């Protein structure tokens, strides 16, 4: 049987002996070179991904002001408020809906804005901590009660606590200490200011529900 070396020698002395190792290396190199242009042609240049690719037009009223925005479907309400509208009162705590630091109101209902898609608020009215005071600059009764009863320490969770507390009263869940604790349980205070928070809600509830205080409720 004719060997590979014999065939190589028959081709002339200038050709090095053809061995299995060199044959496999040459074959692999040839396949790689042939495949490279095809891969490049198949992939082609990547399309430019602009910042608003796939965005949806969204109109939302925030603290009484209408905003027309182009939003990516994945943008959270919290990120929209903080990064696009500059309303940094709602805080990013856990970003998983477990701490309540990002609580805002959507059409009067409290929501965790980190779990709420911004595009879902199209046509809605959103209220943040920046929008609960009076036009003359007076604090909301709940804000004042938090100050009066020292219901905060570091203050990071306070905006969410205040927004949840206002909703707690509006929902009719501030009729007893046990009820307040239950319906405020979704808002965590790592400083442990719960006693002051309870006292603040207890004090603010009658003011919010009185005829002269209903405009703040």
Structure description:
By secondary structure, the protein is of the alpha+beta class. The protein has a five-stranded mixed sheet, covered by helices on one side. Strand 1 and strand 2 form a beta hairpin. Helix 4 packs antiparallel against helix 7 and helix 5 crosses helix 7.
For the structure shown, list the relevant keywords.
217 residues, alpha+beta, five-stranded mixed β-sheet, 5 strands, globular, disordered N terminus
Q: Secondary structure elements and their pairing?
A:
Blueprint: H1 4-10, H2 20-43, E1 56-62, E2 65-71, H3 77-84, E3 103-106, E4 109-112, E5 125-127, H4 141-148, H5 158-170, H6 177-183, H7 194-209
Parallel strand pairs: 1-5
Antiparallel strand pairs: 1-2, 3-4, 3-5
Helix pairs in contact: 4-7, 5-7
């Amino acid at each position: 049987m004719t060997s590979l070396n014999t065939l190589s020698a028959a081709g002339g002395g200038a050709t090095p002996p053809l061995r299995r190792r060199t044959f496999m290396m040459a074959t692999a190199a040839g396949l790689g070179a042939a495949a490279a242009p095809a891969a490049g042609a198949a992939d082609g240049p990547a399309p430019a991904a602009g910042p608003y690719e796939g965005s949806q037009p969204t109109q939302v009223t925030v603290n009484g002001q209408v905003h027309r925005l182009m939003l990516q479907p994945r943008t959270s309400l919290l990120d929209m408020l903080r990064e696009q509208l500059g309303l940094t009162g709602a805080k990013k705590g856990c970003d998983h809906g477990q701490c309540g630091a990002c609580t805002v109101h959507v059409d009067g209902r409290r929501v965790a804005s980190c779990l709420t898609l911004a595009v879902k608020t199209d046509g809605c009215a959103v209220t943040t901590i920046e929008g609960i005071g009076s036009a003359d600059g007076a604090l909301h009764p709940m804000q004042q009660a938090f100050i009066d009863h020292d219901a905060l320490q570091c203050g990071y969770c306070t905006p969410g606590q205040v927004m949840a507390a206002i909703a707690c009263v509006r929902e009719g869940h501030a009729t007893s200490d046990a009820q307040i604790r239950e319906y405020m349980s979704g808002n965590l205070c790592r400083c442990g200011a719960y006693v002051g928070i309870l006292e603040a809600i207890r004090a603010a509830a009658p003011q919010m529900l009185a005829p002269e205080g209903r405009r703040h409720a």
